[in-house]
């Protein structure tokens, strides 16, 4: 044995005394771990994410300069010290405002108004955008790490196969060849040095701070270029707006928690609740007729029938017994109630200030599921993922969310919601929290600055007929749906008319209607949870009353039990309404028009109404 090899074996005698299998396992584990560490370094230092800053697309990428730099192009940059460990920083390159959803004929004034709304929403809740970007960068870093790790291990495995299992010996032999070490080191340095220098090169302390930001988290931020002048001039207004928005919604949530703490029946009514006031069907002209003509027996007085059968005039018990048997057959005994609590929201319109308030309601009501009747965002653009994420982050962990996207939600929005674990209804029945829910995305799309246009080749009437057929098939199979959840009430009409839909939840009109009987089922339209109206944007503090609805559903018998309204006022108030019972369903269909605002107890004070035509302005 050569002297060098014998010396090496002597130094590692313990290692060579181990079995071959043990040594191979240790070498494999160390190789996998070592390659994993290198892959992680690669993944973390090269991670990128395309997100948003207000209405702008923004490209986020990690650096090693210990700074967070927001590059606004010709305007300049904003630079702050990074709170990330290991010298990590982030470069944010702010790009254009996306127009991918412009269907043509866009109104530039409306588009600019929408951009202003996006700026305001970003400034009102920048934490949501920061979380969105951080989550995106982390996901990309993990993906790059796994990919690099897999490729490196695959290359090692191929090398072992190519060298017939003697890769280490082959590598040592190649390394001993003249010029190989120098060339390998040179190539490695040529590849790594420019990357390291670029990633670690900081700003050099350029820029200046602004007194306007002195009392904010950006107090130490350095600003370069013309951006500094803009911050000095307009920054005070922005800071005041952010502070006002934060204080407003913090107080709203505080008032909500105080109201719940004082509520004697926070989770369920203690006594039988009063029935919700309903419209008198006799005052409304109904266009629907009964499904069948009443028979003579049905209209005949049971007492008269019994007397007729007794010529002597002495009524026998036979008629009474028959009536009792019929009543027994008609009155199907109910199972023991199995309540599930639903928190309903709709028309959030990216009012991210309401996100923690919505989350608090879900928590305090101990809701089992959140039903979202659509219009979570404003225009369905890619940069509005921050809106979806703000509400998703606020809802307590483990509470599922089912959403029927509205006319302001695009397929892009649906993808963002599904990425956060929400169940997006797409024309199939889903079972969540013991509820069978049917619904679909709105067939129309209303983008900011662009006219309402179809998202797919289907009208509301065709969508309603399709959902009605699904509901009827489910009913015939003995497993009927519990709730039809669609944004626009027009898509619910066929199911309510046929009787295959017993209960429907809708939004869109930005006002509360019902619950009442429509057709052969019950219908409820909720007002906006963001305080939105047709002509009022959801920017900053509430400008109109916002509404959430808590519904208790009996899973054992498949019927709604009771509900209550929670309203939030422009005065920062939070009001928890009394529990109310749903109206009974009649076997006689009722075709009720949408009543004008302010003419019924179903209206919420302070909320404007649309014309009720079911147009797509909501």
Detailed description of the structure:
The chain is α/β, with parallel strands linked by helices and 618 residues long. It has three domains: 234 residues, no CATH class; 261 residues, Purple Acid Phosphatase, chain A, domain 2; 27 residues, no CATH class. Helix content is 39%, strand content 17%. The chain is built from 16 helices and 23 strands. Strands 7, 8, 9, 10, 11, 20, 21, 22 and 23 form a nine-stranded mixed beta sheet that branches. A six-stranded mixed beta sheet has the order 1-2-5-3-4-6. Strand 10, helix 14 and strand 11 form a beta-alpha-beta unit. The longest helix has 37 residues. The C terminus is likely disordered.
What is the CATH C-level name of the largest domain? Alpha Beta
Helix content: 25-40%
Number of domains: 3
Q: What is the CATH architecture descriptor of the largest domain? A: 4-Layer Sandwich
The end-to-end span amounts to 87 Å
Q: How many E-type strands?
A: 23
Structural class: alpha/beta
- Strand fraction band? 15-25%
Mean pLDDT: 78
Q: Which spans of ≥5 residues are poorly predicted at pLDDT below 50? A: 101-113, 283-329, 597-616
Mind telling me the CATH superfamily name of the largest domain? Metallo-dependent phosphatases
Number of helices: 16
The biggest beta sheet reads: 9 strands, mixed
Q: Given the C-alpha coordinates, what overall shape results?
A: globular
């Amino acid at each position: 044995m050569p002297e060098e090899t014998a010396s090496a074996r002597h130094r590692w005698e313990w290692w060579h005394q181990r079995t071959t299998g043990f040594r191979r396992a240790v070498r494999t584990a160390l190789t996998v771990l070592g390659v994993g560490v290198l892959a992680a370094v690669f993944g973390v230092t090269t991670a990128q994410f395309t997100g948003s800053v207000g209405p702008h697309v923004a490209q986020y990428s990690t650096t090693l300069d210990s700074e967070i730099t927001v590059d606004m192009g010709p305007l300049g940059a904003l630079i702050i010290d990074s709170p990330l460990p290991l010298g990590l920083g982030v470069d944010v390159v702010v790009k254009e405002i996306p127009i991918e959803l412009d269907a043509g004929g866009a109104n530039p004034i409306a588009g600019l108004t929408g951009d202003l709304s996006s700026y305001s929403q970003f400034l009102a809740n920048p934490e949501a955008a920061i979380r969105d970007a951080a989550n995106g960068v982390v996901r990309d870093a993990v993906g790059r790490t796994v990919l690099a790790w897999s490729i490196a291990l695959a290359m090692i495995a191929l090398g072992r196969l190519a060298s017939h299992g003697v890769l280490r010996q082959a590598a040592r032999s190649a390394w001993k060849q003249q010029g190989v070490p120098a060339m390998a080191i040179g190539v490695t340095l040529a590849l790594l040095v420019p990357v390291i220098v670029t990633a670690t090169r900081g700003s050099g302390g350029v820029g200046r701070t602004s007194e306007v930001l002195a009392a904010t988290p950006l107090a130490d931020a350095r600003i370069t270029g013309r951006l500094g002048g803009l911050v000095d001039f307009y920054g005070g207004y922005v800071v005041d707006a952010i502070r006002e928005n934060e204080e407003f919604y913090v107080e709203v949530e505080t008032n909500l928690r105080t109201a719940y703490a004082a509520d004697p029946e926070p989770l369920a009514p203690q006594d039988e609740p009063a029935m919700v006031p309903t419209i008198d069907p006799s005052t409304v002209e109904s266009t629907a007729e009964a499904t069948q003509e009443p028979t003579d027996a049905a209209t005949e007085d049971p007492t008269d029938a019994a007397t007729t059968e007794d010529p002597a005039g002495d009524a026998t018990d036979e008629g009474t017994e028959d009536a009792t048997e019929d009543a027994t057959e008609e009155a199907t005994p109910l199972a023991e109630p199995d309540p599930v609590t639903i928190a309903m929201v709709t028309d959030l319109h990216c009012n991210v200030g309401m996100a923690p308030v919505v989350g608090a309601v879900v928590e305090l009501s101990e809701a089992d599921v959140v039903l979202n009747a659509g219009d979570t965002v404003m225009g369905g653009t890619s940069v509005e993922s921050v809106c979806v994420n703000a509400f998703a982050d606020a809802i307590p962990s483990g509470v599922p969310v089912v959403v029927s996207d509205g006319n302001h939600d695009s397929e892009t929005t649906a993808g963002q919601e599904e990425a956060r674990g929400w169940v997006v209804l797409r024309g199939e029945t889903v079972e969540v929290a013991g509820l069978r829910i049917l619904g679909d995305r709105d067939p129309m799309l209303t983008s900011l600055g662009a006219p309402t246009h179809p998202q797919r080749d289907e009208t509301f009437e065709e969508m309603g007929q399709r959902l009605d057929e699904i509901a009827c098939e489910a009913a015939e199979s003995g497993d009927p749906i519990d709730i039809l959840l669609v944004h626009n009430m027009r898509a619910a009409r066929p199911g309510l008319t046929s009787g295959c839909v017993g209960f429907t939840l809708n939004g869109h009109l930005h006002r509360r209607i019902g619950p009442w009987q429509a057709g052969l089922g019950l219908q409820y339209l909720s007002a906006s949870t963001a305080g939105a109206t047709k002509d009022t944007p959801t920017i900053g503090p509430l400008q109109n009353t916002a509404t959430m609805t808590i519904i208790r559903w009996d899973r054992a018998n498949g019927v709604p039990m009771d509900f209550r309204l929670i309203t939030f006022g422009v005065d920062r108030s939070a009001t928890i309404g009394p529990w109310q019972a749903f109206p009974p369903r009649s076997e006689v269909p009722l075709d009720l028009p949408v009543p004008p605002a302010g003419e019924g107890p179903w209206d919420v004070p302070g909320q404007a109404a649309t014309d009720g035509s079911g147009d797509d302005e909501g």
